[in-house]
Amino acid sequence: MGVLWEKQVNCPICKNSFVAKNIKSSAVKVKERDTDFRGIYEGVNPNWYLVWVCPKCYYSCFREDFLSIKRKYVAVLQKDIQKRNAIARNSDFNKERNHYLALISYELAAHCYNITDGSKEKIGNLYLKASWLAREVKIWSLEKKFLKKALQCYLQAYESEPDLKMDNSLIVYLIGELNRRLGNYKEAIRFLGRVYDDRKGRCNLEVRRLAHEQYFIIKEIIDKEEGRKEEENKKEESI
Ligand SMILES: [Zn+2]
Fold first, then answer.
1. Full-model pTM
2. C-alpha 59 to ligand 1 mean position (Å)
3. What DSSP string runs through 159-176?
4. How far is the CA of 108 from the centre of ligand 1 (A)?
């Protein structure tokens, strides 16, 4: 038995009929998780197939949203096909996915949500997942680009979207953690501290534990840096 299940789908934008592939949840085995929740899997990576892409017009989004696109956006997406072609660069989405196709699928989906007023939280999730794919192929410049975009979206979501799907402590943690990964330590401390300092106990315990760990990792880096500066100042003074 394969790890994929298939569904015949009619694209709501161009009416093309295609086979959308999905990973069977029973085939997904998580070995570990990074501190930004990237799963490390035994065997198949489910993140490769989270986004459905029409192979003809490159309309893309998460599986659960694909067929429920609002009528007012159909025309918007029909007119936008050239931009999607430019992002897709002739990629063949009839083929099985690999890292590259998965990454393109996230970029296409982020673009589609952007032009159809999708939530910043959802677009942030797409960029975060894109950064994971870049990490898996060890291209830091690309990972950084997507981490920055994810962070920007999560900040906007946190400030302006009242009905977040994720828990409040989780988004604050992610804002802190992505800042940490990008080397913005002061900002990271500010957000991680909010989760770890939560005395009312509203935070998810696992998230709070992670925030606590990351907070002290940064504190150590900052303290070392400050210690080094002090040493240098003393040397200068004694000359
Ligand atoms: Zn289509």
1. 0.91
2. 5
3. HH-SS-SS-HHHHHHHHH
4. 12
Give the C-alpha distances (Å, rounded to integers) separating 17 from 13, 97, 191, 214. Answer: 11, 19, 46, 47
**pLDDT (tens place) for every residue of the chain, 239 residues total:** 589 999 999 999 999 999 999 999 999 999 999 999 999 999 889 999 999 999 999 999 999 999 999 999 999 999 999 999 999 999 999 999 999 999 999 999 999 999 999 999 999 999 999 999 999 999 999 999 999 999 999 999 999 998 999 988 999 999 999 999 999 999 999 999 998 877 666 677 888 889 989 998 998 888 888 888 888 888 877 76
Structure-token match 């069977």, residue found: 24
In angstroms, what is the span from residue 31 Cα to ligand 1's centroid?
36
Strands (E), 58-202: 60-62
Cα(84) to ligand 1 centroid in Å equals 11
Q: 75: CA distance to ligand 1 center in Å?
A: 12
Distance 15 CA to ligand 1 centre (A): 6
Distance from the alpha carbon of residue 142 to the mean position of ligand 1, in angstroms: 28
